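We modelled the chain as a single entity of 716 amino acids. Its sequence is:
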Amino acid sequence: MENGAVVGVNYESKTTSTITIKGILSLLMASVGENYDDSKRVISLGMGDPTIYTCFHTTSVAEEAVADTLQSHKFHGYAPTAGLLQARNAIAEYLSRDLPYQLSSDDVFITCGCTQAIDVSIAMLARPGANILLPRPGFPLYELSAAFRHVEVRHYDLLPEKNWEADLDAIEALADKNTVALVIINPGNPCGNIAETAKRVGTIVIADEVYGHLAFGANPFVPMGVFGSIVPVLTLGSLSKRWIVPGWRLGWFVTNDPSGTYRKPKVVEVIKKYFDLLGGPATFIQAAVPRIISQTEDIFFQKTIDNLKHTLDICCQEIDDIPCISCPYKPEGSMAMMVKLNVSLLEDISDDIDFSFKLAKEESVIILPGTAVGLKDWLRITFAADQSALREVQSSAAPKSLDRVPQMALLKASLSKILLYSNRARFVPSFSPLTYFSLPPMHSFTISASFSTEHKPQSRWRPMCLYHTQGKCTMMDDLTHLEKFNHDCSRELQVNTSDLNKICSQNLDFFLVLDLEGKVEILEFPVLMISAKTMQVEDIFHRFVRPTKMSEQRINEYIEGKYGKFGVDRVWHDTAIPFQEVIQQFEAWLTQHQLWMGGELNRAAFVTCGNWDLKTKVPQQCEVSRMKLPPYFMEWINLKDAYLNFYSRRATGMTTMMRELKIPMYGSHHLGIDDTKNIARVLQHMLVDGALIQITARRNPKSLADVNFLFKNRIR
């Protein structure tokens, strides 16, 4: 799908005027090479290939299925030109799950990726005088294929102010008796309206659904084939995006036509004969399709969706800090987003192409100019990148030690570079500079992935084994498990010893960073013990909490909604214990570290992001669990108040503090253990910047409901 082409307004039927997206990306890479600095990591957010990022990989079922068919020695020969029957049956069954009718193998033709399916669809419809309606923005490969087939291209707009809905009035105005097809990219348009419009103008629909099911907004993915009884639909798709295997080149061309137009003998014969000219994907990959489709578990798809949602959130947060770029509509699917470039705010930048080439040359960051997909002065940014940047790029030149990081596109790093470049490109004088660039100077501080020679850098961020944090991991001798999950929280929060002389003397020896989860009752109780002198993680206490006032059915629904999206609902069910038991174990943990001897905490204080955890939630939970409020919950540090008083600016939450301090977020927001570690990173950063971290809130011992807030200047 990345093999599309740019077609100028005056050249829509001239193949010599086209250039592929890969061609543009190659030119951008060549621009990087003109004055390449090997201290800079080339970061690409231009190509929609998620496999180059470590957090996107296919399921082991798919890999094993392909390996088994190859090693079986049964599929070394040619496949039928329409594809292996078992693969066609599997695809028909897979697509029929979402349709009101059943497809058969006769409706399915295997193609070499969705790219070949596009070319087949246009070749089948081409005739003298024909025209085709294409969306703008869209995939330019349609223009290139149409140009080769001498099919006139007519563009209808997708309207950004209406969430990129198709301009249906434009479609009706553009269509005539020679219109052979209306192309849509789905998910992305209200399919029912498209079908009715296509029926009125007397044409069929080509539904490009290579991103099918990669929808994560309020509206679920609806295949265009659902409306096949209204208008004939040609569905184009592949394994590439949903199974994250674009290099396998396994696609399909499917006729969704319950009325039987495409089942007429002459039509079927023409399609089959055309496929006789083509070569499909490798036979052994086709043979693996039935197992790949039938045995892939839903949790694999959900994890991909969760990763995309998270990286999209990061992308949108970072774009908010780039004044010359805006996103009129947050995507609800796929892997890329369109953002508007405001050229008027930049000097010496003529358009989106100029911006993209100068960004590549000066910052080694590759993004696709919007002109490549039909929109001038827009940019296309791929957000299917690693959700955890190993390092926030603070300047145009990264340190030499960055070479020790595995080759990958770093999402936050690249957007930070765009921000730095756009700032250097100089805003016109009448434009007020971002507050982002007028913050008080902060020390350069390396967290999580330390590049100091004293620490071995991590190859990639890995989620914590949540069985291990609760002392219940039984797979410590399983190398695959150890590679997949982190079992040492202290490694994620390593610091450079050179930063220790920047810390001012604290009134405490230890900070107990805590972030509770659960609105009705507490569901998760994580605490990190951080040394005030070394900033190192001394120990971790983590327990999942089982509610006491909820029915089992309600608990299951609650946990599925809360933790199912993170893929940790099973570990919650396996390990959760009542709050009273959690407190007993926590007190034993405190005693073990000599932080509590029966009264208030000794040489330590809780650190929270807000007052809710200890002011409100713990007392509520104690009342529900019919127990007294433990005496060590009498005082705490609200990091938001400490942040406000030290930096003299308000931060309403953890993500704001991290963004302003340029700290990359790791893990899943609202998973308690991950939020606790991210809050700890903010604390570490403040300590290095020289902050004195003091108690901000204290209960009245005579009236526990009364809390005295000790900072006059505080977040309310």
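As a brief sanity check on the tokenised model: The longest helix spans residues 298-319. Confidence is low (pLDDT under 50) at residues 1-17, 387-411, 426-459.
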